[in-house]
């Protein structure tokens, strides 16, 4: 495993396992146990995923010392306020059955993010969270949050894949000491990504899968990546990316297929914010 050092000195694994859209408790526990046994040390869940309890059970069952694991969860917009964050964090910690989490993120740039961030700063100071960060924040939102609060986010988890590469965003975050982390590493399987001819050519050269090439590409860019699968063999394959290295030519070919295409929505778009607010009964 390779690690990055966050802006507060905490070490974070560069390759992680995510559990988005694995709501079945038995399945979630099984695949997280398999991921940990495979070698994953970063496990990423969220309040909104509804599977924190299953993740907690998997952590206990896997038999790996807690200090070797890096557990992330996230605050949903329904509790995006000072008091809401305190309450939601306590509930997440209880469901995970842990004494602390390694990384706690504001899941969306929606609601009272400043109030919630102050709560995270306090929980961080108390040692209940080892690092605090955000998800889906744009550069201006990162700047605003950082400049008017005590603690700069350690991580920003954003959509990042071969069709939405975000090099300029990564450069800005790096200049501020914020680690970029990707979700959607495989573009949600859209745009025929697994059979893309450029990726296929590179994968064949190394006797690897296109998924492995995409994860290796993120690793070499200094991006913390998350992958997800309920298939144990794919879980193993997605972790098997440390025995080959893409050349500068390979990296350039992948850079050339960027189209700045999102698989979700622009979090800087007013309609996106209104849609997200609609999930918790808020209307403009």
Automatic annotation (TrEMBL):
What CDD domains does the record tag this protein with? AKR_AKR5F1
Cite the active-site annotation.
49 (proton donor)
In alphabetical order, the GO MF annotations are: oxidoreductase activity, acting on the CH-OH group of donors, NAD or NADP as acceptor
Where is the site described as Lowers pKa of active site Tyr found in this chain? 74
Q: Which SUPFAM superfamilies match?
A: NAD(P)-linked oxidoreductase
Q: Which Pfam families match?
A: Aldo_ket_red (PF00248)
Q: Which UniProt keywords apply?
A: NADP, Oxidoreductase
Q: Where does substrate bind?
A: 107
Span of domain NADP-dependent oxidoreductase: 26-258
Q: Which PANTHER family match?
A: 2,5-DIKETO-D-GLUCONIC ACID REDUCTASE, NADP-DEPENDENT OXIDOREDUCTASE DOMAIN-CONTAINING PROTEIN
Q: Which family does it belong to?
A: Belongs to the aldo/keto reductase family.
* Name this protein carries in UniProt: Aldo/keto reductase subgroup
Q: What is the lineage of its organism?
A: Bacteria, Bacillati, Bacillota, Bacilli, Lactobacillales
């Amino acid at each position: 495993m390779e690690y990055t050092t966050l802006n507060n000195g905490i070490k974070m694994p560069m390759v992680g396992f995510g559990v988005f859209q694995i709501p079945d408790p038995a399945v979630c526990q099984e695949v997280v146990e398999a991921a940990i046994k495979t070698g994953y040390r970063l496990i990423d869940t969220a309040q909104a995923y509804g599977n924190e309890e299953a993740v907690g059970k998997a952590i206990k069952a896997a038999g790996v010392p807690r200090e070797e694991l890096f557990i992330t969860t996230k605050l949903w917009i329904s509790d995006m306020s000072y008091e809401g964050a305190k309450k939601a964090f306590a509930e997440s910690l209880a469901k995970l059955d842990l004494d602390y989490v390694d990384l706690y993120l504001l899941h969306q740039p929606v609601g009272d993010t400043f109030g919630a961030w102050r709560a995270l700063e306090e929980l961080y100071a108390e040692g209940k969270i080892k690092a605090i960060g955000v998800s889906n924040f744009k550069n201006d939102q990162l700047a605003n949050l950082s400049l008017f609060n005590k603690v700069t986010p350690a991580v920003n988890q954003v959509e990042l894949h071969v069709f939405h590469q975000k090099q300029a965003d990564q450069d800005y975050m790096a200049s501020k000491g914020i680690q970029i982390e990707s979700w959607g590493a495989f573009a949600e399987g859209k745009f025929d990504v697994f059979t893309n001819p450029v990726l296929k050519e590179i994968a064949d050269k190394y006797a690897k899968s296109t998924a492995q090439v995409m994860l290796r590409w993120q690793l070499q860019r200094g991006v913390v990546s998350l992958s997800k699968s309920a298939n144990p063999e794919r879980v193993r394959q997605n972790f098997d990316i440390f025995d080959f290295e893409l050349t500068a030519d390979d990296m350039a070919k992948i850079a050339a297929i960027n189209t700045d295409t999102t698989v979700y929505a622009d979090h800087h778009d007013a309609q996106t914010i209104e849609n997200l607010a609609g999930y918790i009964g808020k209307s403009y």
